[in-house]
Amino acid sequence: MPPGATTGRAASARRGTGAFTPADYDSRVTSPSLARRLGLGDAVAIGLGSMIGAGVFSVWAPAAAAAGPWLLAGLALAAVVAYGNATSSAQLAATYPTSGGTYAYGRAELGEWWGFAAGWCFVIGKLASAATMALTFAAYAAPAGWERPVAVVAVAVLVGVNLLGVTRTAALTKAIVVVSLLGLAVVTAAGASSSSTWAGLGSAAPVDAYGVLQSAGLLFFAFAGYARIATMGEEVRDPTRTIPRAITIAFAAALIVYTIVGTLTVVVLGASATAASSAPLADVVHAAGWTWANPVVRVSAAAASLGALLALVAGIGRTTLAMARERDLPAALAAIGARHRVPYRAELAVGVVVIGAVALVDLRGAIGFSSFGVLLYYLVANLAAFRQHGDARRYPRALQIIGAIGCLVLAVSLPWASVVAGAVVLAIGLAARGIRLRIDRARRAG
């Protein structure tokens, strides 16, 4: 049986102690296993590429529209919840160093249905994120009117890079992260040199608690990239040590970047202008009088979006692989290429779906929809980590309680359309699995 196939309390009793090793997981996979080729730097780059690209150029406007001048309070709340989730993911990944992330953890610690719910929420939510990142790239890189075709080409190219092997993915991600950080350094310097009166901070506007919660739910979208490290656990060398360290380092670095950039954006533009802006960081540079730097910001934004898209395709592909191994998705998607050792069918399927979404669907609400799915995904992670005991425990259970409660509160605080859409998609997935299990039982009985 593949990793995570043994579920529920029996699995928790046997595996939750951390007695299994990476070799045990590799030997239990029924299809060929992925190759362990990623080191600490590779894993950190993949996590950073996901987090920086996922939100720093796209999430400030909707978050400011929700929280107004209290945007930074929403960022702080999102960071607290994300930290609880990050520690849960690190603790679980050290025990279950396999593909699939919380899909595998949920199956092992809580049961098959919990694992399925987590995996389904991740795949559907992150498919929407991937399409959003492709269109964000095109918004910065494509001529007017050519955004969708350019986004389609970007998805196709990055799927091709992923098919060449995980080391190619990591190498390109490192280069993209460097370009993104250089651009953000320019934005930071411009914002710091601005003659702003700091009107964006210290506003006398009353606190809108619901607005702060809603902005935190949207900003959580920006921190969720460390999941990509966990979903690729089957490809990390010395995963018991490397994955927890990579998650911690990537989260801390992203938090520093988001705090600096978010503060300067609100300081220079003010909450109202931030909410109304389609490109807040470009507006920061313009407001500071650094008009020469606008092309730098556009290149940085395009690179960051590509980095997030590259990591998303890899992460969704590995979760799809794990679900296909358990027949929670079509078993044909579990195929692994003999040469490059990647889940090529899963990644091709991800590419087709994302291209379809980019070409045909209006994705303006995708950030909220993605946040809802990912918050439920991490709810399962916190519950699974809470059940661990013995040597598997690395962090206080209080962090898992904070993470779980935070996920629930932020999920229901999102825009109602995102909550309804996410709940409907989750219900469809659960119903489809129930039907598939009934068909399987009928076949066995017949």
TrEMBL record:
It is found in: Membrane. It is a multi-pass membrane protein. Residues 1-24 are annotated as: Disordered. Signal peptide: none annotated. This is Putative amino acid permease YhdG. It comes from the Bacteria. GO terms for cellular component: membrane. Residues 1-19 have a biased composition (Low complexity). Its main location: membrane. Keywords: Membrane, Transmembrane, Transmembrane helix. GO terms for biological process: transmembrane transport. The chain crosses the membrane at residues 38-61, 67-86, 113-140, 146-164, 171-192, 212-229, 249-276, 296-321, 342-361, 367-386. Residues 43-426 form the Amino acid permease/ SLC12A domain.
